[in-house]
Write a structure and sequence with these properties.
- By secondary structure, the chain is α+β, with helices and mostly antiparallel strands.
- The chain has one domain (9-162): 3-Layer(aba) Sandwich (Replication Protein E1, Chain: A), CATH 3.40.1310.
- The protein has helices at 9-27, 50-70, 74-77, 105-108, 111-122, 135-141, 156-162; strands at residues 31-38, 82-90, 93-101, 126-130, 149-153.
- Strands 4-1-3-2-5 form a five-stranded antiparallel beta sheet, with helices on both faces.
- Helix 1 (9-27) packs antiparallel against helix 6 and helix 2 packs across helix 5 (111-122).
- The longest helix has 21 residues, at 50-70.
- It is globular, with a radius of gyration of 15 Å.
Protein backbone atom coordinates (compact mmCIF):
# COMPACT_ATOMS: atom_id res chain seq x y z
CA UNK A 1 0.00 0.00 0.00
CA UNK A 2 1.64 3.24 -1.16
CA UNK A 3 0.57 6.86 -0.62
CA UNK A 4 -2.06 7.85 -3.20
CA UNK A 5 -1.26 9.87 -6.34
CA UNK A 6 -4.53 10.00 -8.29
CA UNK A 7 -5.71 13.11 -10.12
CA UNK A 8 -9.47 13.39 -9.53
CA UNK A 9 -10.24 15.07 -6.16
CA UNK A 10 -13.01 12.63 -5.14
CA UNK A 11 -10.90 9.56 -6.00
CA UNK A 12 -7.84 11.12 -4.41
CA UNK A 13 -9.74 11.89 -1.21
CA UNK A 14 -11.09 8.32 -1.05
CA UNK A 15 -7.65 6.83 -1.73
CA UNK A 16 -6.06 8.95 0.99
CA UNK A 17 -8.83 8.01 3.44
CA UNK A 18 -8.26 4.31 2.84
CA UNK A 19 -4.48 4.71 3.12
CA UNK A 20 -4.51 6.76 6.34
CA UNK A 21 -7.18 4.64 8.03
CA UNK A 22 -5.09 1.56 7.11
CA UNK A 23 -1.84 2.90 8.60
CA UNK A 24 -2.37 1.25 12.01
CA UNK A 25 -2.69 -2.13 10.25
CA UNK A 26 0.68 -1.59 8.54
CA UNK A 27 2.48 -0.27 11.62
CA UNK A 28 0.96 -2.74 14.06
CA UNK A 29 -0.05 -0.06 16.56
CA UNK A 30 -3.00 2.33 16.77
CA UNK A 31 -3.22 6.08 16.32
CA UNK A 32 -2.98 7.68 19.77
CA UNK A 33 -3.74 11.38 19.20
CA UNK A 34 -5.19 13.73 16.63
CA UNK A 35 -5.34 17.49 16.64
CA UNK A 36 -4.88 20.94 15.17
CA UNK A 37 -1.78 23.13 15.32
CA UNK A 38 -1.70 26.82 14.36
CA UNK A 39 0.89 29.57 14.27
CA UNK A 40 0.74 32.75 16.35
CA UNK A 41 1.69 35.19 13.62
CA UNK A 42 1.37 34.28 9.96
CA UNK A 43 3.35 37.39 9.00
CA UNK A 44 6.50 35.69 10.29
CA UNK A 45 6.25 33.12 7.47
CA UNK A 46 7.22 34.63 4.07
CA UNK A 47 4.49 34.05 1.46
CA UNK A 48 6.65 32.27 -1.12
CA UNK A 49 8.03 29.80 1.40
CA UNK A 50 4.99 28.72 3.41
CA UNK A 51 5.08 25.03 2.47
CA UNK A 52 8.82 24.66 3.14
CA UNK A 53 8.78 26.50 6.45
CA UNK A 54 5.72 24.81 7.95
CA UNK A 55 6.98 21.38 6.83
CA UNK A 56 10.34 22.08 8.47
CA UNK A 57 8.65 23.26 11.65
CA UNK A 58 6.49 20.16 11.86
CA UNK A 59 9.57 17.95 11.37
CA UNK A 60 11.28 19.84 14.20
CA UNK A 61 8.19 19.37 16.37
CA UNK A 62 7.99 15.61 15.76
CA UNK A 63 11.75 15.44 16.39
CA UNK A 64 11.23 17.03 19.80
CA UNK A 65 8.46 14.52 20.55
CA UNK A 66 10.76 11.68 19.48
CA UNK A 67 13.56 12.99 21.75
CA UNK A 68 11.22 13.02 24.73
CA UNK A 69 10.03 9.46 24.05
CA UNK A 70 13.04 7.65 22.55
CA UNK A 71 15.98 9.75 23.77
CA UNK A 72 18.36 12.10 21.99
CA UNK A 73 19.69 9.34 19.73
CA UNK A 74 16.25 8.43 18.40
CA UNK A 75 17.32 8.87 14.77
CA UNK A 76 20.03 6.20 15.06
CA UNK A 77 17.61 3.76 16.63
CA UNK A 78 15.14 4.17 13.76
CA UNK A 79 12.29 4.64 16.22
CA UNK A 80 9.86 7.49 15.89
CA UNK A 81 6.29 8.59 16.03
CA UNK A 82 4.31 8.10 12.85
CA UNK A 83 1.11 9.40 11.33
CA UNK A 84 -0.33 11.80 8.80
CA UNK A 85 -0.54 15.56 8.61
CA UNK A 86 -2.68 17.85 6.48
CA UNK A 87 -1.45 21.39 5.98
CA UNK A 88 -4.09 23.91 5.05
CA UNK A 89 -3.67 27.55 4.14
CA UNK A 90 -6.75 29.47 5.17
CA UNK A 91 -6.41 32.99 3.78
CA UNK A 92 -2.63 32.39 3.54
CA UNK A 93 -2.57 31.43 7.22
CA UNK A 94 -1.18 27.89 7.53
CA UNK A 95 -2.27 25.39 10.11
CA UNK A 96 -2.01 21.63 10.52
CA UNK A 97 -4.36 18.78 11.30
CA UNK A 98 -2.69 15.53 12.26
CA UNK A 99 -3.11 11.97 13.50
CA UNK A 100 -0.20 10.40 15.34
CA UNK A 101 0.79 7.08 16.84
CA UNK A 102 3.96 5.42 18.04
CA UNK A 103 5.32 2.91 20.53
CA UNK A 104 5.32 4.54 23.93
CA UNK A 105 3.68 7.76 22.76
CA UNK A 106 0.73 7.76 25.15
CA UNK A 107 2.78 6.22 27.99
CA UNK A 108 5.44 8.96 27.80
CA UNK A 109 3.54 12.05 26.64
CA UNK A 110 0.10 13.22 27.60
CA UNK A 111 -1.87 15.16 25.03
CA UNK A 112 -1.45 18.26 27.20
CA UNK A 113 2.35 17.81 27.03
CA UNK A 114 2.16 17.82 23.22
CA UNK A 115 0.02 20.97 23.30
CA UNK A 116 2.52 22.69 25.60
CA UNK A 117 5.44 21.66 23.38
CA UNK A 118 3.83 23.25 20.31
CA UNK A 119 2.84 26.42 22.12
CA UNK A 120 6.35 26.78 23.58
CA UNK A 121 8.13 26.11 20.28
CA UNK A 122 5.99 28.26 17.98
CA UNK A 123 3.74 30.37 20.19
CA UNK A 124 0.73 29.08 18.34
CA UNK A 125 -2.43 27.37 19.46
CA UNK A 126 -2.63 23.58 19.76
CA UNK A 127 -5.58 21.31 20.35
CA UNK A 128 -4.74 17.62 20.81
CA UNK A 129 -7.30 14.93 21.54
CA UNK A 130 -7.31 11.20 22.10
CA UNK A 131 -7.88 9.33 18.86
CA UNK A 132 -11.13 7.37 18.76
CA UNK A 133 -12.68 5.71 15.74
CA UNK A 134 -11.84 7.00 12.26
CA UNK A 135 -13.07 10.59 12.59
CA UNK A 136 -9.59 12.13 12.95
CA UNK A 137 -8.26 10.41 9.83
CA UNK A 138 -11.34 11.33 7.81
CA UNK A 139 -11.10 14.94 8.99
CA UNK A 140 -7.55 15.19 7.66
CA UNK A 141 -8.51 13.75 4.30
CA UNK A 142 -11.16 16.41 3.63
CA UNK A 143 -8.31 18.91 3.10
CA UNK A 144 -7.14 17.03 0.00
CA UNK A 145 -10.23 18.30 -1.83
CA UNK A 146 -9.70 21.83 -0.49
CA UNK A 147 -6.24 22.17 -2.00
CA UNK A 148 -4.42 21.25 1.19
CA UNK A 149 -1.41 19.00 1.32
CA UNK A 150 -1.38 15.63 3.09
CA UNK A 151 1.88 13.94 4.09
CA UNK A 152 2.73 10.79 6.00
CA UNK A 153 5.63 10.79 8.47
CA UNK A 154 7.46 7.99 10.26
CA UNK A 155 10.78 6.95 11.76
CA UNK A 156 13.21 5.06 9.55
CA UNK A 157 12.07 1.65 10.84
CA UNK A 158 8.61 2.21 9.40
CA UNK A 159 9.43 4.17 6.24
CA UNK A 160 10.08 1.08 4.16
CA UNK A 161 6.89 -0.63 5.32
CA UNK A 162 4.91 2.53 4.54
CA UNK A 163 6.77 2.96 1.23
CA UNK A 164 7.77 6.52 2.08
CA UNK A 165 10.68 8.46 0.64
CA UNK A 166 13.37 9.46 3.12
Amino acid sequence: MTPPTLSEPANLRQAWAEYIIGLPNITGSPFEYWGTLTYKDHAEIPRGHVEDIVARRFRYFTGEINKRIYGKRWIRSGAGVWGAIATEKLLDYPHHHFVMGGDGLRMNLRRLDIMDMWETAFGGWARVQDYKGQAGARYIVKYVGKGGQVDVFAGSQLRDRLKLKA
